Amino acid sequence: MTEFELIEKFFQQTPKRSDVVLGIGDDCAIVEIPELQQLAVTMDTLVSGVHFFENAAAFDVGYKSLAVNLSDLAAMGARPAWVTLALTLPEANEIWLKEFCRGFFELVKRFNLQLIGGDLTRGPLSITVQAQGFLPVGKALTRGGAKVGDLIFVSGTLGDAAFALKCLREKIPVDESALAHLHRPEPRIELGEEILTLAHAAIDISDGLAADLKHILEKSSVGAVIDVEKLPLSDALHAAVSEDEAFALALNGGDDYELCFTAPASLADTFCEMQLPITCIGKITSQKTLELQQNGKIYHGKTAGYQHF
Ligand code: ADP
Ligand code: MG
What is the Å distance from ligand 1's center to 22 Cα? Predict the structure, then answer.
């Protein structure tokens, strides 16, 4: 198949949006941004052997390459709209491409997106996705807005993806629910939009809670106290490892793609009424450090997140 036949067969299947004036097929895509909205733009690359195992299921690779980008949009409170996809493939393996697209387009459809362009090259397997979404002018949820006295919240449960990865590496059997956290994280788009006007600062947790929360602390020039007893752990993780190991996975494990955000303490009841899938784990302080506590005493654990370099 030629490059153009591949594009036609695999990527033209995208759903169409009315704000796309010109989609796949020309030198550029042309899109229309709604009035009074700004564009949030994010990009992530997944490299075979670095971000996923070389024998990873193509479906999961397709799904996750988009999910991690949507997670970034969620962390700003943006509503996703358009995506572009740059694929570098060692060969035009149609079986692999079909499965990749099944995973990729599952999220495209779920979030009412349109794939508006991309690139196709030959080389070692790597996937770059750019996602674009809308934000009301000036309302973006950044890392820099945390205030002393804010409560700190996280969505979902933490540590499951890192636990699944550890089991895969050590060839220990691991159940489906933990694997799903690793391979098919759920981007918290709805939550991001719900907290947009309520939260002060937010980030998505890709490198581990401690490492990512530190980005909020640095950008906001504040500190935090986290109570490890409050870290939301899944029943599966609780059952599988010791308490200390569960805390370490929740604090330092990567790949959770949950949201961590800060908000005024006065909003705690409102969040309860909204029935958001979140847990309060601590509060923002003026100390400029990240302190871990257990039952009111300092907790000594590892706090470094995953570092690429
Ligand atoms: P150009 O050479 O002008 O950059 P290409 O020949 O690379 O254009 O691509 C032709 C069209 O197909 C463009 O609209 C491009 O955005 C689109 N396209 C190429 N690769 C992909 C892909 N992986 N996914 C979606 N669209 C793609
Ligand atoms: Mg061109």
Answer: 12
